[in-house]
Design a protein that fits this description.
The chain is of the alpha+beta class. It is built from 17 helices and 22 strands. The longest helix has 21 residues.
């Protein structure tokens, strides 16, 4: 590591950081990964681990047709013109290099998994895919990591694939789903433990596999080592100052790749850039998501874009005060989301980013933060809610105020401060939609994506079930997020740009540190991690070619 002409400092240990480090190593450089916290993986490790990669080799192997042209039409349609963060050149680089990234990591030993069925978020739009373009990590035995196995920032090391969650949510409704859940718990989890394995899926398998590849290549990783600032000479970045073991140390390098996430946990930045009301309490991003890398880039003149946006999504605050992201809860039948006036304002089953945007838009007209999820007894009887099993609601759910229960809609409305007459009219109208199977107001259940989390036993529309059986319950819904979407402006080579569009020599960014190529939308599952890894790979390779 003494030859700084070959050294690359990678700031951050999420999916973008590991992809960058592995690519730099394969290109003949000597990467060093800096992690500010004591755990690896950032928000990537806590995530579903999916990567939205159109026209990928696993799709072809599964007989699912796709092409660059189809995916480009789709991206152009759903993203639109949002400025240089999602320039034609960056879209082209993502779509061209995405399949190559999958092939490259497969060649290194990374094991991917693909199952048709997790649709794009707008599958009916031109170029959209009903069967989906998301690849994910296959299960990984964390014991292969030795002492590093306890250094991953994962929530629960359970061997799940993404679509398992949809099946598990129906365990009390479908015998096939019950059997599938039994398989996950019995064979995969307990069975693997009995033979000495500790299998992980989702984000744990993603970071676990990437860490394993880094360990095989002797890539050094420093924990508890936050970057303090960038070192520059004559307008070029030539290293970083890092704080390690209480000491500030200058590390000179050929290039610096910023992959340290966004600013979801930085209240000052959120107050400055995001719509109000805003707080750091509603995000599910990792605690280390403090915006340090973005601020370091801005301090030396880097341009930014999309700073007012995030990977939004509805959340609730559970009885322990933790934000929980809502997926099946809002999409399953027998429930709706209303504002303080008691009216619906969204398709509850739609893409979470859209739901977040809609909640902020609605709040400009009617108080909608918080909004309220309203469900009847069947929703609680049939489906899990957060970590609560179907039909089992602990006392603390009510005692903490997280969940509100009443025997009539009017009583529930009054307990929540919602207009009772409006709520009753809204529910009556919604119940008519449930009977006909057509949501005339917001088209819930019309899209294949809506039906990913739904109940096929409910007819004629698996997302619509009447709200009519007491007791009724309500849960406050906040505009949370998976992380922020705005950051340093980069080009198709992941180089950080100045305001005049010129690249800052020696400085790259990927993942949520960079402004997203996906613009203000979310084309499909894995639209955060997919580009993070593609542009991480591009950055690592380009750093080796930099003159």
């Amino acid at each position: 590591m003494e030859d700084s002409s070959k050294r690359v400092v990678v700031v951050g240990s999420g999916s973008a950081g590991f992809a960058a480090a592995l690519a730099a190593k394969e290109a003949g450089l000597e990467p060093l990964i800096l992690e500010s916290t004591g755990l690896l993986g950032g928000s990537s490790a806590m995530s579903g681990g999916g990567m939205w990669i159109p026209n990928n080799p696993l799709m072809r192997k599964a007989g699912v047709p796709d092409s660059y042209e189809n995916a480009r039409v789709y991206m152009d349609t759903v993203i639109g013109d949002v400025g240089p963060a999602s320039s034609p050149e960056r879209r082209e680089a993502f779509l061209r290099e995405g399949p190559r990234m999958v092939e490259w990591l497969t060649g290194l030993g990374f094991r991917f998994f693909y199952a048709p069925g997790y649709a794009d978020y707008y599958p009916e739009r031109p170029g959209g895919s009903v069967k989906g373009r998301c690849v994910e990590p296959d299960f990984f035995d964390l014991k292969k990591l030795g002492p590093w196995k306890d250094k991953l920032n994962i929530l629960m090391p359970i061997p799940l694939h993404t679509l398992d969650a949809a099946k598990i949510s129906l365990s009390f409704r479908l015998f096939s789903a019950f059997l599938h859940t039994a398989k996950v718990i019995g064979i995969r989890t307990i069975g693997s433990a009995l033979i000495g394995k500790k299998l992980a899926g989702l984000g744990g398998a993603l970071i676990g596999q990437l860490l394993y590849l880094a360990m095989q290549r002797s890539i050094p990783i420093w924990l508890h080592s936050p970057m303090v600032e960038l070192i520059t000479e004559h307008g070029a970045v030539t290293g970083v100052v890092v704080e390690k073991e209480g000491k500030k140390t200058a590390i000179h390098a050929r290039a610096v790749i910023l992959a340290a996430g966004g600013f979801a946990r930085n209240l000052e930045m959120r107050q400055k850039y995001h719509p109000h009301p805003i707080t750091t309490d509603w995000t599910v991003a990792t605690e280390g998501d403090l915006g340090v890398a973005i601020q370091a880039g801005m301090a030396i003149g880097a341009a930014t874009a999309l700073m007012d946006d995030a990977w939004w999504g509805p959340v609730f605050i559970d009885s322990k005060g933790k934000a929980q992201f809502m997926l099946w809860e809002r999409s399953a039948p027998f429930g709706i989301i209303v504002d303080s006036s008691g009216q619906r304002f969204m398709n509850e089953s739609a893409s979470y980013v859209d739901c977040g945007h809609w909640q902020y838009e609605r709040h400009k007209e009617v108080p909608a933060i918080p909004a309220y999820f309203i469900g009847d007894s069947r929703h609680r009887k049939y489906y899990p809610f957060g970590t609560m099993l179907p039909g089992i609601t602990p006392k603390e759910a009510y005692e903490s105020g997280f969940m509100i229960k009443a025997d009539s809609l009017g009583e529930l409305a009054r307990a929540c401060g919602i207009d009772a007459a409006n709520l009753e009219r809204t529910v009556q109208r919604f119940n008519q939609f449930a009977a006909t199977g057509k949501d005339l107001d917001f088209h819930r259940g019309d899209s294949a994506y809506d039906r990913v989390y739904s109940d096929p036993k409910v007819k004629p529309n698996p997302n619509l079930g009447p709200i009519e059986r007491p007791p009724f319950f309500a849960v406050r819904v906040w505009p949370g997020d998976l992380g922020t979407k705005g950051g340093l402006l980069t080009d198709e080579y992941a180089r950080v740009l100045r305001e005049d569009g010129s690249p800052i020599k020696g400085l790259y960014a990927a993942g949520n540190t960079s402004a997203s190529v996906m613009g203000r939308t979310y084309p499909g599952p894995g639209s955060t991690i997919g580009p993070a890894m593609v542009f991480g790979m591009i950055a690592g390779r380009h750093a080796a070619q930099m003159e």
